[in-house]
């Protein structure tokens, strides 16, 4: 049955549960409690909730002040604003001052597909991963969102998380698995090539792997939920053991997951890295699925690219 | 305070402020870098806070109930380094490393140094952070206060006003923001660069209780700080009218002294002027001068 629970709702459910016993957890929204699916939290724990109004610089500064006082603030604000309008506060008040603030960029990527470039967040991985000390995570489904939220409460330090708006198909059957920040999850075994994906594109990578398997091509799939710190060991192992990598992300082809992977392979195990993402242009408007289709962020296109690489290797090798 | 003890207290603070000015001038002179004008204009504010009003313990900088000080105008850090060293937050000898390669004592507040709460330096950040700290105190039922020092040029930053709105919205009467209103910024008069007047009415309109004082009058400073909040449920804005370069005749009210640094002869003259002030306050002469 198709999943109907979006990651934002999974986040709220986890926080509701965790806040029962942990009174330091706080949620801050910038007139975004509805978009963040956090209205139930605001209602259940008014003393652990702060509304800042539409003021994205202020929300991060206030969160840093709360964290300095021992709170564990979760700032839920649209990713397009949180990763741009607030970025100096993220750099100075969170990363540089080393405050324990969890920045939750909601409606990330092209979730607000039809609203245009002002509401797309396709540069957030690039910006946040260049800031020293900041951890960057993008969960793939509701189960991973739950595991991640639990890990965030335990983790000390600033984190930027990007989640999407709409329900996405599950990539895990349940939350009964090990989640560790900074550790990639190998979701399909294979040695002919590796597909590295993050967030909502993990589903496409898995579907592509299954299509390829039907054709006798066995590829590895890594769920790189943590963009920073990147799991370098998993990337290098993939490069050495499978010889080629395709990265898939809901992000600009500049500076995101693909770039992070290529930075590692270039120095440690040079292999071809094909970066699939949104090209360097204001992304076309439309529904999320239509935008993915337009730019080839689909299981079919990943399958095609993988076949070209693997077959090319056979004919030239 | 009785009248006599208040006179004694004010004299003590005035002497301390002169000493802090001497230290910060030597600091800037040795490093040949720093924000001379702004450090001199906020010295009396810092002295009133750290030596009179604030609850704090240099031996226990993370004491939960301490009052918090956030230097939002982070560039005027030399006076703060001089105060923290004098109070014993770190060894006085460390002042000699100011601005040197690898030092903790950089040109902005650095929370690797005991006594510094947060890294500041990008303007417009201090007030939102202070709102968060004051809100945490309210939610936790703690009675510490938060003091946030801003510049007047800084008032052009939009985030100042986001913080102002939130401070009033959450009725943070444990929050005291201070504007070091010296009237000058790096490229000229604040009113020529970007007019911000009427500051008092703007802050009042944002829901703050505004107290306007002479920022070099210790009687007014300690009264404003000690008595806040005068209106329960409202945050306090102390509009402290100051003189940029205060205490050094040739630097006072001169825009170029925003970050001019003293040469040997200027240091000699400035210290002589400050020694004369100390003498007039009945204090024993300070040891040494340029070479101390």
From TrEMBL, chain A:
<dbReference type="InterPro" id="IPR033248">
    <property type="entry name" value="Transketolase_C"/>
</dbReference>
<feature type="domain" description="Transketolase-like pyrimidine-binding">
    <location>
        <begin position="5"/>
        <end position="171"/>
    </location>
</feature>
<keyword id="KW-0786">Thiamine pyrophosphate</keyword>
<dbReference type="InterPro" id="IPR009014">
    <property type="entry name" value="Transketo_C/PFOR_II"/>
</dbReference>
<dbReference type="InterPro" id="IPR029061">
    <property type="entry name" value="THDP-binding"/>
</dbReference>
<dbReference type="InterPro" id="IPR005475">
    <property type="entry name" value="Transketolase-like_Pyr-bd"/>
</dbReference>
<protein>
    <submittedName>
        <fullName>Transketolase family protein</fullName>
    </submittedName>
</protein>
<dbReference type="InterPro" id="IPR051157">
    <property type="entry name" value="PDH/Transketolase"/>
</dbReference>
<dbReference type="Pfam" id="PF02780">
    <property type="entry name" value="Transketolase_C"/>
</dbReference>
<comment type="similarity">
    <text>Belongs to the transketolase family.</text>
</comment>
<dbReference type="Pfam" id="PF02779">
    <property type="entry name" value="Transket_pyr"/>
</dbReference>
From TrEMBL, chain B:
<dbReference type="InterPro" id="IPR005474">
    <property type="entry name" value="Transketolase_N"/>
</dbReference>
<protein>
    <submittedName>
        <fullName>Transketolase</fullName>
    </submittedName>
</protein>
<comment type="similarity">
    <text>Belongs to the transketolase family.</text>
</comment>
<keyword id="KW-0786">Thiamine pyrophosphate</keyword>
<dbReference type="InterPro" id="IPR029061">
    <property type="entry name" value="THDP-binding"/>
</dbReference>
<feature type="domain" description="Transketolase N-terminal">
    <location>
        <begin position="18"/>
        <end position="270"/>
    </location>
</feature>
<dbReference type="Pfam" id="PF00456">
    <property type="entry name" value="Transketolase_N"/>
</dbReference>
